[in-house]
Design brief:
The protein is an all-alpha fold. About 80% of the residues lie in helices and about 0% in strands.
Length: about 120
């Protein structure tokens, strides 16, 4: 059984939905209320990154590798947007947010390397 780029996207959407559900269960959105779900979102992104790296190693074409990393950039963008949308007009002050952006940058570097 192999995982496709579409499966990677579905896993990212599922992680975002779980994050949104956790936030929705909270009464107030304060930094301390968001940190735990943000850490879980970050951890899921790190898992997706590992899956993407394995997929890229096994992908026979450069176009396929580029598609994997492009999809990961999109997933990272969605996750960072979900965190920033919690406090419109403010930059999130979260280690998890910063780490998500770091992972996004790594994915973008990989995408550019294989494009």
């Amino acid at each position: 059984m192999s995982i496709s780029v579409t499966d990677l996207e579905i896993l990212g959407q599922t992680a975002l939905q779980e994050f949104s559900d956790r936030i929705a269960r909270g009464e107030r959105i304060e930094d301390r209320d968001v940190e735990r779900p943000a850490q879980r979102l970050e951890a899921k992104l790190e898992q997706l990154y590992a899956v993407a790296a394995t997929m890229a190693q096994r992908e026979p074409t450069l176009e396929g590798v580029t598609a994997i990393w492009a999809r990961m950039v999109s997933i990272c963008d969605s996750m960072s947007k979900a965190l920033s949308d919690l406090h419109p007009g403010k930059t999130p002050h979260s280690d998890s947010y910063d780490r998500i952006l770091d992972i996004r940058n790594a994915c973008e570097e990989n995408r550019l390397l294989h494009a």
